[in-house]
Design a protein that fits this description.
Distance between the termini: 66 Å
CATH class: Mainly Beta
Structural class: mainly beta
Largest sheet: 5 strands, mixed
Radius of gyration: 19 Å
Oligomer: single chain
Number of helices: 1
Shape: globular
Number of strands: 9
CATH topology: Jelly Rolls
Order of helices and strands: HEEEEEEEEE
Number of domains: 1
Length: about 150
């Protein structure tokens, strides 16, 4: 009985003091550590505060130019004014665009669409907050043949 109680106590303490890996700073916080995205999959994560940035990446290796549609939406949606979605593209010749933001403060869904991604180019998406509250969000990426 003593062993059972000790084991139960250890597991309880592990659960109480553990944190969600996707809510911790240090996961996908730079382009170099970006989380790989797959088209037509929705990712649900947390962002900590205004100093936390979540980077995601997708490489176009389809052999064709692809048209991009990406979106981010906070949950609950009433926190939408505090989110920003941006992107940049790295091309095969080692050139890249600057970071470009979606229309900001126009509604609960931040979206980037009709951007052409050449074959071999790498897309980076950035989700960031402008206030210091922890919030969950959903991020989606779709690509289409042109």
């Amino acid at each position: 009985m003593k062993k059972f109680v000790s084991t139960l106590l250890v597991f309880t303490l592990m659960l109480v003091f553990s944190t969600n890996a996707f809510a911790a700073k240090g996961i996908g916080d730079t382009p170099e550590t970006a989380i790989t995205l797959f088209p037509r999959n929705i990712v649900n994560l947390y962002i900590e505060d205004s100093t936390d940035k979540d980077w995601f990446t997708w490489t176009n290796n389809t052999g064709k130019i692809q048209r991009l549609y990406a979106w981010a939406q906070p949950t609950p949606t009433d926190d939408w004014r505090n989110f920003r979605l941006a992107f940049k593209i790295e091309y095969g010749d080692n050139t890249s665009t600057r970071l470009m933001y979606s229309n900001y403060n126009i509604g609960p869904l931040q979206a980037i669409d009709n951007i052409y991604i050449p074959n071999g180019a790498k897309l980076y998406l950035l989700v960031e907050k402008v206030n210091n509250s922890k919030t969950q969000y959903a991020l989606g990426l779709d690509v289409y043949d042109i």
